[in-house]
Structure formats: structure tokens, C-alpha cells
Specification:
The complex is a heterodimer of chains A (286) and B (754).
Chain A: E1 2-4, H1 9-18, E2 23-26, H2 32-37, E3 45-48, E4 58-60, E5 64-68, H3 73-77, H4 80-85, H5 87-93, H6 99-102, H7 107-112, H8 120-127, E6 130-135, E7 138-143, E8 148-150, E9 153-154, E10 161-168, E11 174-181, E12 192-200, E13 206-214, E14 221-222, H9 224-230, H10 237-250, H11 261-282
Parallel strand pairs in A: 1-3, 2-3
Antiparallel strand pairs in A: 4-5, 5-10, 6-7, 6-10, 8-9, 11-12, 12-13, 13-14
Chain B: H1 24-29, E1 44-50, E2 56-62, H2 64-68, E3 72-76, H3 89-98, E4 103-104, E5 110-116, H4 119-128, E6 130-135, H5 142-146, E7 172-180, H6 183-188, E8 192-200, E9 212-217, E10 223-227, H7 232-243, E11 250-254, H8 270-280, E12 284-287, H9 290-296, E13 303-311, E14 317-327, H10 335-342, E15 352-359, H11 374-392, H12 396-403, H13 422-430, E16 443-452, E17 457-465, E18 471-475, H14 483-495, E19 502-506, H15 523-550, E20 557-560, E21 563-566, E22 577-578, H16 579-584, H17 586-589, E23 593-601, E24 607-617, E25 624-634, H18 641-660, E26 691-696, H19 718-730, E27 736-737, H20 741-753
Parallel strand pairs in B: 1-12, 8-27, 10-11, 14-15, 18-19, 25-26
Antiparallel strand pairs in B: 1-5, 2-4, 2-6, 3-5, 7-15, 8-13, 9-10, 9-12, 13-14, 16-24, 17-18, 17-23, 20-21, 21-22, 24-25
The chains are: A alpha+beta (286), B alpha+beta (754).
Chain lengths: 286, 754
Amino acid sequence: MRYIRPLSIEDAVGTLASSARTAAILAGGSDLLVRMKGGFVEPDLIVDIKAVPGLGDVQETAEGFRIGAAVPSAVLGENTALKKAWPGVVEAARLIGSKQVQGRCTIVGNLCNASPAADSVPAMVAAGAKAVIVGPSGRRTIPVETVPAGPGRTTLAKGEIIEAILLDKRPPHAGDAYLRFIPRTEMDIAVVSAGVNLTLDEKGAVKTARVALGAAAPTVLLVEEAAEVLVGSKLDEATLERLAKVCSGACRPIDDKRGTIEFRRKVAGVLARRAAVTAYQRAGGK
Amino acid sequence: MNFDPRYSTRNFTAVGTRPIRPDGIDKVTGRARYGADFNMAGQLVGRILRSPHAHAKIKKIDTSKAEKLPGVKAVITAADLPDHTNGDAAMYDILDNCMARKKALYDGHAVAAVAAIDARTARQALKLIEVDYEVLAHVTDVDEAMKHGAPLINDAVFTEGLEEKPVKPSNVTKRSQFGHGDVHAGFGHADFVVERSFRTEQTHQGYIEPHACVASANADGTADLWVCTQGHFVYRQHCAQLLGMDASKLRVTSSEIGGGFGGKTHVWAEPVALALSRKAGRPVKLVMTRDEVFRASGPTSATSIDVRIGARKDGTITAAEATLRYSCGPYAGSWAEVGAMTSFACYRLENVKTVGYEVLVNRPKTAAYRAPSAPMAAFAVESAIDELAKMVGMDPVDFRIKNAAQEGTRSSYGPVYGPIGIGPTLEAVKNHPHMKAPLGKNQGRGMACGFWFNFGGQTCTDLNIGMDGSVSLAVGTIDVGGSRASLSLIAAEELGIAYEHVKAVVADTSSLGYNDMTDGSRGTFSTSMATISAARNAIRTLRERAAQMWDISVDDVAWEHGHAVARGEKHGNLGKLSLKEIAAASGTTGGPIAGHSELVADGAGVSFATHICDIEVDPETGATRVLRYTVVQDAGKAVHPTYVEGQYQGGAAQGIGWALNEEYIYGKDGRLQNAGFLDYRIPVCSDLPMIDTQILEIPNPNHPYGVRGVGETSIVPPLAAIANALSNAAGVRMTHIPMSPPRVLAALEAAREG
């Protein structure tokens, strides 16, 4: 096994692209090292991207935020401006693993691990986050929801690295929230989860909405019908009931060791509803 | 040596105080050496190849490719562990469990092992071993395994304990029955009858430290084993027998232990490590991964239990009956038998009958887990008792008090009780402020009782007094919960010296006579008895030496508060001699001063506990959160109250995990789906409230200080206490453990749909 620590993104891309054997990208390592220790993967090449300049930074730009691929979740939690603008994304990132894992794990890693249960992904999808991808043929920017292709698989081509996640600048009266269900209180993996992102008009009615569900299908679901239910409403009881129903209906869950189809369906609706209420309050709605 | 174990009242000086444990600083600073912390020069890495099939005939194992891999020093299969068990069926099962001989009987069953120069080579070597399996039909469910036509795990099993020997083999190895009176007549007198069926899923002890050992077989036929265990003498016995060597030639040294809870009373990988070392001629270190710990060590039984209890309008129970089916894994056990014995042990019953069935399934060999078999039986019985109290219209505590066993009660499993703690724990619960605390929306309170036998057994202890007057205590029972501190307190108490001048260690198997393992809550009970006996023997020698120093008769020398005191008119002017002074002179008065003791500690007093818990249910998700929890238990005498409380809290925490989330989940393929702490959910800190404790002290008449074992009983009541609380919070009676959110939500939905 070979370990390299490139000092530029071009080097990293070049090394990955020219590698003939199995290669893995190492940022926080909280998925990769566990998988290696468990004997599930034995990469021949590990490319550690933590030394690439800029990948460890959170930048506030005119367009919003740019979160480098090697920024640990704990650092996101310490960024006041980011937390104020995107509390749902940050709270989702801060649910990954445990306190110790938080110091290492990254939302890009969470995205590329391509688990349908990844905590930060539904929140990013609801937030309309974009991924900046660098590859042998240059840079491209795509919506986060187009990165996972299925459990453990992404749409990234050989040699491609996600360099950063982009989050838009927030208009007034905007809020997001993320909730997951776990049988414990921490150090667990979502049985089902929901992220909701809302903007309100001057009167407090929902202007735009994005609703995403995790662990409800092979990839994170962006439920457009749920957004349509919310737009124009002030989250009255009937709207919330419909939201829950639409979300439960949109699920394509499985029975597994973590939960049943019925449980995931039902709780997806409950969580979407609860997350919507929180997002609405954060947006200043009453 | 004429040791009188009977209880007598006394005023304690050291016993009952809470000094820091001798192993504490090493543990909090990370210096303590656990199983995997031992290393030897030239040691190899051992790894085990395990069956991916739940049930398969092993047709052929080809190890030739693995043997040729550079760096591989030994490859073994069952052929390298020839059968020395000489007709001992239980030992043969242990041998077969350590390394499958003809069939792989569960997912994770060891089939071969390698020793290599490093972990990577060992892993590669495992991949090169070719096993030709013939996959057989399997069964993992306890009820399914009992059905006619279920896949047979062992066609030589004919159910024992039936009136007529069955003509066909089955997966039921044994039927056992307990009770007295006439239950049929008893139910005839009942105004109310509760009848329910319950299920509990299989749980693992969940010790944080995996099994780990270093084995070193020497060229002269002797061997050493450093290992994490609850009983190094038992490990020596078993390993020596399985490897065909004299026990005295195998020296076993125990490490600190990161949890055992019964799971480290059985050998798993140790005989394999010794066989590898013997073949390779080098030391072999073998550390199980977490996946292996779950798939191939532990766990407890999965159960299916039917309960029927009847009572009169006045709340008197007239009859109680239970049928208990416990999974044993693929080898015979007595797990249902123990469950059947404990089921109704808390109650005074005229008519009681319990029947247990031991059931073979394609799961790992069932191992002891803290009060083994009792929590499941108590879940069923205490749930039904709660429901019956409601039907009668009595408060559940009052109903239990009315029917509680007392001194003189003939227990449901046979013996007549001496002084016991069930009534007092119930009275204490009735008067506890917890019972009167207000509850909020979606919250409920439940309570339940628990029983455990406790055990005494064989113990051998040495107490050596140094020339400076300090005391070394060498014990042969593993310290799993602070017993070195407790035993030091006992030695200090008997000798009349300060705790700080006693140092207790766990000696290796070549330094002491045989000791039973730390199980059955026997560690402090039995070893404190042996320590008292050893100290008294040392005191006799101290008195003799003082008599010699004074040149008077030993009959005129008494031992008081750490000093020899001369008695009688003519010696009245002699100043007393301290232990330190006598020790300092020992070189000229006859040499070192020591006390030795070997005994069988009989009369371990039975133990009872009553628990109270408050929970809150999320009606939309079925999530249950424990808000408040109180343990009331009889300790006989709490030697070190902090560690007694620790046992109460630890047992309750494990019971809460069992009640709410822990379970072995098998796929249709018979493979374990959740062999790790992510999906086998033991509680994390934030899942639990601070667990409150109340220690009752009802002296055990069979121990000089009144001590009873305290380690196990506290895991018995939580399953039912939480189920009863849930019933009060949400109006649903949960009959399937764990009460995981999907199960609770389904029950809530069913109740809402009416």
C-alpha cells in the first residue's frame, strides 16, 4: 500500500487518474479507516488531501459559503456565520459519528461515502448545496443530490475529487433544519431522516421550500411534491399533515436490521413535519 | 481449619468505608495491562477462519496454499486438536466449539487458524485456506427449532427428562420441571387469571474488551498463557484438558479485565492459540475482532415463555405456571432449567409449576450472562404479575408485598428460605420518594422484582505479612468490579490495620491452589470468607510470636485493634505489641508470618432486588427514554459501598439496554446481521439517567460479616420494570424484548386502530 500527501489539487487528481490499481481518497478517514480495519477494502494507494491548500478552509464569499473538502464537522460547528445562515446543515454535520469522530469527519466524505443514511446529505440537498468537482478534464459544479448513485457508489469519474461544497448566501426570512431518528441519543446511524429548507415572504408564508429524506431510498430523496405542499402555506395543521403524508408516500425504504418499511415510512413523515416547524421558526415564521 | 463462617454482629472500622481502589490510578491513566497489552519477543499473530454458513458439513479443508505463504508459521484445523475429552460430553462440546470438527454449526464457528509473522500475512493466509462445505438447512429461531420437521442440529440428541425416552431425535436436549402443590386446583380457586406469551431476543454481554491472549508452548511440554478471563484456574483446567497436558504444566496469568459479565467464563480462542503456539514453536498472540466477539463468543439465550398466574379477589396468588424455552446454541445446556428455577422465586406460592426446554439452534454456544437465564423469566413473570395486580385492582407494590416470599417460605425451586430481602426491598420501594414523584405527558412509572441464587465455591487465598508490617494478599478470584479493594478492607478489618497497608493482587495459577472463577456473584462473598480465615490464621501466628517475644503462654495473648495484648494478672504490666513490631522481629522468632486459607464457601445468601423506573414514550416514533431509575437491593453487608452501587448501576444499565434495543438479528441466510456496536445497540452514556441506588443490609447468616453476592441480581428486574412503565405510559403491553422503536410504534398503531 502506498500513501501520498499531495500539495496541490492538480497533483492529487493526476495521481488518482494515473493510478492503475485501487485508490482511495483520505480526508478525515472516519469511513475509510473503519472500512480498511474491517477488511472491506484494501486500497493499494491512499491519497491524503488534507495538505492541499484551501481544502481545510471555510470561506464566506459574495455568493455564500465555500466549504473545503477537508474541513472537519467540528470546525463547521465553530463557524458562527455559517451556523447562523445554515443551522440545519451544521446540525446535520454535527450528528455524524461521535464527538471524537466530529474532529475528523467531513461533509464531503459523508457525501462520497454514498450511504443513503448519511446525516449531512439530506440537509445539504435541502439546502440546495453544490459540489465543486476537479478532475482530469477540469472543474465542474453539480447539485449535491447528483453525486450519490446508489449505496456506496457515486457518479464521480476516475480521477475526480470533490474540492468544496457551495452553499448560497441567505435571503432574509430563511431557515433550515435537519432531524434524524436513531434508537439511541448519539453515536448512531439514521434509521430515517429529514431535512427541510424554507424561505418566507414578507407575510410569513412559505415562498420556496426544499424537502429531503434520508435512509428512505437507495439515495437521498429530494421530495418535490412535499415542497409544493409547503409553498404558499404558513404551516397550518392541515399542511403539516399533508407534508407528513406526502413524505411517507415518497419513501421507498427497505426492511433491515435498523428498521422496518412501515416504521421508516411513518417516521419519515413525522420527522419532515417536525423539521419543517423548526425551519419555519428559524426563518422567523410564527 | 476449623473456620466458623457464621455471622455475628460487630462494629466495623474498615468495612463499609469507600477508599480508592488499588487498580484505579492505573486504569484511569491507561497503564493497566489488559489482555491485548501483553507481548513477547518473537510472538506471532494468530487469526481464526470462521464459517460463513449457519449449518454446513465440512467435507474437506485444504490448508496447503496457506502453509506455503511466506511468513506463515502454523496452520491448524480440528485435526491439530485431537480429542482428549475421554467421554466428557460437555468438554467435547467446548472442544468442538473452539474448532469445528465435522460440521460448522453457526455463522462464525471456527474451522481453521493460522499463526503468521504479522496481521496482514495472517489475513492473507486465511483467504488461502480452502474449505469445502456442504451447506445444510439451518434454524436460528427457538420456537421454529422445536417444531416437528425442523432441521436437526445433532441427530444424536434425544430429549432427556421425559417420562419415556423419545424414539426420534430432536433439537430439544432436555426437559426440566420444578414446583410444588397442584396448579390445576390452584387455578380453580382463582378469580382472575392472566395468561400471556413472551419472547426475548438474544443479547451479548457487550464487554468492551475483546477476548485476547498470548500463548507460549515451550519445548519441554510446559506452556504459559496470559489472558483476559474471569477464571484463570478454570481456563487452565479446560485448556490443559483440551490439549492433553497436565494442568500444573500450564501456567495461566490473568490480565486486567475490561468486562466479562459471564462471557469470559468460557474458553474460546485460548486452546486455539496454545495449539498454534505448539505447532509453530513460538508465542502466539490472538485477539478477537469485535465481529468475532459477536459472532463467536457470548451470547445469552433467546427465549419464548408462556406464563399463567391466578389470584383471588383479595390479591392472594392461588397458582402460577410457566413454560420456558431457551436457546442453547448448537450444544446442550441448562439455561431453561435455571430460568425455570428462578421464575417465581420472589413469591410465596402454594401451587407452582415451571417447565424448561433446552433448545438447540444454529447460533453461537450460549454463555453465561450476569444472572444467566433469570432476566428473561423475570420479564415474563413480572409483566404478568403487574397485569394481574391491575385486574385485582391492587397497587403493584402492595400486590407483590402480599405475595412475597419470606423466611421459611418454600421456594418455587425447592429449598426453604432463610432470612431474605424481597419483602424489605418492596417496603423500601413503597416508601421511596421516587414512587411519589410527579409524571408528565407520555410518561409512565413501572417497577419489578428480581432474584438470583448467588454462589460460593472453592477459594484459596494467601496473606503474607512483610517485615515492615505491610500485608500482601494474593487471591485467585479475578477482580471484575473492585474486589481487590473490598478484600483489602476485609484484611484490614480482621488484622486491625489501615487499608493503605494492605495490597491485594490476583496471583497466577502456579502460585495458589484452585479457585473457582468469578461468577455467580461469588468473588467478594467467597474470597472475603477465605481472606477472613487467612487473616485469622495469621493472627494466630502473630499471637504465638508475641507470646514468644514475651515468653508467656499464647493462651494469654489476645489480638485487639492490630496489637497483641497480654492478658491476665501476671502480664498486666506488659505493653502491647503492634503487628509491625511483631513483623519486624519475625526473622528471629520463626521466620515469615503468613496466613493461608483454602475453603469451600457454602451458604451464599440468595439475593433480591426491586427496581423503579420512569420512562417517556414518543407516541409518533415509539422511542422510549428512561428518565429516572432506582435500584433497591439487599447486599447482606456492603464491604465497599461504592462498588456495590457500581454493581447495581451496571446491572441496571445492561438490563435497560436489553429491554430497549439490544438484539442479535439474523438474516434468512442464518448469518448475523449486526456483529458490531453500531447496530448492536448497547446504551451510551447519554441514553441513561444517573441510576439511583439504595443498599439494604440483611445479614447473610452464613458469612462472618453477613456478606451476600451483589453482582448479578440488578440485571434481572429492568426488562419487566421498563415494560410495566411502558404499559402505564402508553397503554400497550409489550411482550417482545427488546422494546425497540419499530416494535413499540407498531404496538401503539395497533392500539390506536383498536
